[in-house]
Amino acid sequence: xxxSSQHLLSNEYTEVYRRLPLKLQLAYxxxxxxxxxCASMWFTYLLVFFHLVLQFNNWQAGxxxxxxxxxxxxxxxxxxxxxDQSDNFWLCRYGRRKTWHLVGTVCVVVTFPFIFSxxxxxxxxxxxxxxxxxxxxxxxxxxxxxxVQISHLSLIPELTxxxxxxxxLTAIRYCFTVVSNLLVYVITxxxxxxxxxxxxxxxxxxxxxxxxxxxxxxxxxxxxxVIFHVFVKEEGASGSNDVRGTSLRxxxxxxxxxxxxxxxxxVYMSTRLFVNLTQVFIPLYLHETLDMAASxxxxxxxxxxxxxxxxxxxxxKLNRCLGRKLSYILGVIMGxxxxxxxxxxxxxxxxSSQIYIIAVLIGSGGSITLVTSLGITADLxxxxxxxxxxxxxIMSFTDKLANGIAVVIIQDLHKDSSNTGYYRDVLTxxxxxxxxxGALAVISFLKKVRGDPLGYENVPNxxxxxxxxxxxxxxxxxxxxxx
Length: 483
Description:
Layout: E1 5-10, E2 13-18, H1 22-29, H2 33-53, H3 58-83, H4 96-115, H5 127-153, H6 156-159, H7 163-196, H8 207-231, H9 252-257, H10 259-289, H11 296-312, H12 315-344, H13 347-381, H14 388-413, H15 422-443, E3 469-473
Antiparallel strand pairs: 1-2, 2-3
């Protein structure tokens, strides 16, 4: 098979390299499907399941989600730091990133089914005993989820040094995220629609239906994880160099002193707040504000992710043509427009047709901003991937903590069940405000002409196991933060 080559220019640095094979790109993309399936269930249906099916009150359901988000937030920098280490332990010879991916996969598969099941052997126990039961499984699950997420993300800068190839890998990864979500919503819609009827609403008798969805998704996720581990190769513990051979790791103190790290963290956190909070509260908005049937709680998110999937296939070209900043701002405009529409539209018109257009806008805007924010994070890491997982861990820490705190506060403030417009206001002001915050953070970036934002010293000695280098010439490498 003919493999195309491309010149990578970075000031006085020129490299000729082979593009990543399509097989490798696809194998990498499916490596996060298990996480995507679980995240779809977690963000879209956890509050629905705990509140409407298991009959926990709003605050208790929000508290358990917060426990998961805090566990995830604490786990991400921990996993990121240790994933960057080059240990000689026998299991780490499998690959420092893939080892954490494998450990995380086992944790997710073992614990996630218990979260979407009635309390085994304790159905009649006190509610706080049941909450403790669920929190144990949630904590282990979130540690596993963080391990898979951080190890998978940190492979992007290691697989290729090229900015546009990294964007392509991120877009492929997001395509599979969208496909995973689509599958979850199609299965959920089919189960709820066929077994519950057109007008039936979610209730305590629907627990077995959620278990069917979970096991179907887990089966797919396990299969995709096997493909990832078979076809994506990674150097073992002895291969501690960066993608271009940099052998020195940036001290954590230097990373934490970098202003750009916090700017990117605000962008990533804001993006995740918009994407995740819309995913969490759209079902509750449909159930409580628009009073729609149970099947709509799967159909509308399904439409959101169809719009997201279609848009994700254009993001690489969008980033090439407009650059990171303008691409991100375009996504924000689409998301904010949807939030304003939710606030201004009448319930009858929204239920009849407008909610479907709004779903497409939210999905498309979220797709553009999320993929672009991940591209910005990869730009921050640049060529120097030795601390890449820790940087991704910092980004994820801010995201998980902010999401968990936001959800528990929103749920705690919802004490008046007669206020049916509550979730409409949440989607308008909280989600719309998060998108605007991300846009302001992106605008705040100044073009760096020279100098590495993380302060690495470069040691040229490039080697790669996934794409052959034809020739390399290095002199004064100076990567920029944002294109």
